[in-house]
Amino acid sequence: DAMVIQNPRYQVTQFGKPVTLSCSQTLNHNVMYWYQQKSSQAPKLLFHYYDKDFNNEADTPDNFQSRRPNTSFCFLDIRSPGLGDAAMYLCATSRVRGLGMNTEAFFGQGTRLTVV
Amino acid sequence: AQSVSQHNHHVILSEAASLELGCNYSYGGTVNLFWYVQYPGQHLQLLLKYFSGDPLVKGIKGFEAEFIKSKFSFNLRKPSVQWSDTAEYFCAVKDGNTGKLIFGQGTTLQVKP
Predict the structure, then answer these.
(1) pLDDT at res. A97
(2) Cβ pair A96:B49 closer than 8 A
(3) B93 to chain A, minimum CA–CA distance in Å?
(4) Residue A82 to chain B, least CA–CA distance (Å)
(5) Distance between CA atoms of A19 and A13, rounded to whole angstroms?
(6) Interface of A with B in 30-69 (CB under 8 A)
(7) Are A28 and A71 in contact, with CB atoms under 8 Å apart?
(8) Beta strands, E only, chain B
(9) A18-64 confidence digits (pLDDT tens)
(10) pLDDT confidence of residue B2
């Protein structure tokens, strides 16, 4: 059973047209992440939530925003997609509970974003 | 600030050769350590993980890694590689308190038959 679900799997958007990617989880993990991965590159952390606390990476462009309305859902909003934003976007979750209770990250299948 | 560095960007080996990929991290707090593999056109797959305890961890597909705290290292090893091990390998470090998880730049492994 899928535990981290990303929708859609493929998204085509127009240059400059806002787009939202979604992620849901059934693991009840307290941490959720968004990564951008371009071809032949490492996943780049955009931001992560620890419960409701939002943590933005210093080099994440302002064009990228995120929302986490509850434990299960997290959204990535790209306000004005440019051609350089075409990539695979990965959502992941993990648990942080202190010593002995942490887990690895569980990844969704990703959303492949194309900007035309 | 948390950082991860993988020394080898591109490694080419013949089948049956031994493999060691270096990973060093920079962070003074509690860390959880991981190695992921990504085969061409496929998703990330967890190879192995370290949270605490025995610093030598064994993973899937015959891989193992050793955590050396004094060296801030978590190197990946395999005694004998196969052509099917051709892939991208990523070391990742998670802050055990905040959950922040970052990846190294990756190492491309090419195994020649």
Answers:
(1) 77
(2) no
(3) 10
(4) 24
(5) 7
(6) 30-31, 33, 40-45, 48, 50, 55
(7) yes
(8) 3-6, 10-14, 19-21, 23-26, 31-38, 44-50, 56-58, 64-68, 73-78, 87-95, 101-103, 107-112
(9) 999 999 999 999 999 999 999 989 999 999 999 999 999 999 999 99
(10) 85
